[in-house]
């Protein structure tokens, strides 16, 4: 089907920036939306940002608006999450996801393995 591989996580200080990447492979023609989710220890997984694969429409969680930017490179089948002004509460495992629907509200079809982002105060 579709395979997703994230990269770019790490340990940074509050106020720093970090860029996550997610490369898609396999049946990428199925993808209509790609997104980033995160899950902090003891908390449920939450949506961070999503982008439509063709038109570039985006949506963000209120907690990251103005700080995070999702973008895509269709030629490379890659989606990025630029994270600026990072806060300790951004600490989480970040997951890339892809779906066959346009900006779906139902659970995504395909998931990456996750990459850890840790923000120290």
Task: Give a brief outline of the structure.
The chain is an all-beta fold. It has no helices and eleven strands.
Pick out its properties.
121 residues, 11 strands
What does the model show?
This protein has 121 residues and is mainly beta. The chain has strands spanning 2-7, 10-13, 18-26, 33-39, 46-52, 58-60, 68-73, 78-83, 92-99, 110-111, 115-120. Strands 2, 4, 5, 6, 9, 10 and 11 form a seven-stranded mixed β-sheet that branches. A hairpin with a 4-residue loop joins strand 7 and strand 8. The relative contact order is 0.33.
Largest β sheet strand count, sense and barrel closure: 7 strands, mixed
Q: Output the number of helix runs.
A: 0
Mean pLDDT: 96
Distance between the termini: 40 Å
Strand content: over 45%
The ordered H/E elements are EEEEEEEEEEE
Strand segment count: 11
**Shape, please?**
globular
- What is the helix content? under 10%
Instruction: Show unreliable segments.
Output: none
Helix-strand category: mainly beta
Q: Tell me the radius of gyration.
A: 13 Å
Summarize the topology.
Elements lengths: L1 E6 L2 E4 L4 E9 L6 E7 L6 E7 L5 E3 L7 E6 L4 E6 L8 E8 L10 E2 L3 E6 L1
Parallel strand pairs: 2-11
Antiparallel strand pairs: 1-3, 3-8, 4-5, 4-9, 5-6, 7-8, 9-10, 9-11
